[in-house]
Amino acid sequence: MVLTLYVDYVSQPARAVGILCKVTNTPFEEKTVSLVKGEHVQKPFSDVNPFKKIPAVKDGDLLILESCAAIRYLAAKYDGSGKWYPSDLAVRCKVDEYLDWQHANTRAHGVGIYFNKILLPAMKKTEPDMEVVSKHEKEMARVEEQFASYFLASKPFITGDSPTIADLVAAVELEQPKAAGYKLAKATEEFLARVRDEIGAELYDEMHGPVRALAKGGE
Amino acid sequence: MVLTLYVDYVSQPARAVGILCKVTNTPFEEKTVSLVKGEHVQKPFSDVNPFKKIPAVKDGDLLILESCAAIRYLAAKYDGSGKWYPSDLAVRCKVDEYLDWQHANTRAHGVGIYFNKILLPAMKKTEPDMEVVSKHEKEMARVEEQFASYFLASKPFITGDSPTIADLVAAVELEQPKAAGYKLAKATEEFLARVRDEIGAELYDEMHGPVRALAKGGE
Fold this sequence. Notes:
Two copies of one chain form a homodimer. With 219 residues, chain A is of the alpha+beta class.
């Protein structure tokens, strides 16, 4: 059974599945689908994922097109420690709660900042629409506040002393507006530092290299 | 241990958790939080859920503020049959894949239609902005097409012959634009009929009574 990840690590969810596989020593085949080159909207990838989004994950015959579903599955199947997606129902529920919440919160506004401040101006060769950017930045401040007060609530990680896939997904999404120059709150930065420590600084920085370079105008 | 659901069945995710508990004969205490009366943004409910959204679920000390996390948890804990959230990893992954996909698809555009066509005009005493409604209707047609071709792909339900929480969440969300007069595709209507049959027509229609009445201008 071959596990294949279709990824470009400038994408937050692609980083999340990639980091999970690396940190759990899960062997996988990596197929890079360049977002900058538009490979995600062309054949052969559009035959793999009709929704034309990355990451896509294939485990033998099983195709998974949603990153949170993929990361739950990969953790449940390949993480022998059980720590990344704990099987205790109440703990797992708190992991799921964050993964569901983040779609319209951390992700929506982190993407909103990065897309409108960096990607769209680069594609259109124009200045960013700062009114739109500022709307997302205001929402991002609210997201950070709720993340700290409700999800972390003084714990190091969402479910307690050990990080789970929820923290991993949170971290990769929070790094996106940061790469675009958004100033994260101190509590958020401290959370990111804890996740980086747990994953290992070398792997964490290597996986965030492409998005940081892209935000700076390199590739 | 008391299980409490804070609900108003005009809300799709509130219907999903309510139907799951009823269909699995899970005893619960029901606390109605009226959306029309704005009770979700006031005390005492805003002390239960700082995000001021329903449903909220409390199982003993465990508070769950996201409906998809709640429905996964309730099915895993209280459904003795195991059919609503199967434990087989590959099957469960397909349930999760739909639950993740629907946030920005079925839910976003179903809500878009219902909110802009029914709720906003009712609150503002104005005519609906049909340009906005029509944008969501166009996206809804795309959602229906992808739901049929990728998620159902000729199967009666998302994972095969038996419905899961993914089908339940899909059905309650698809009923929302339908209540607002959006004409669903034939394949979507046939899917809804299958879910209604499995849940039982009486319970299904009872739970959809409030949203249908609200859409018609009653309460």
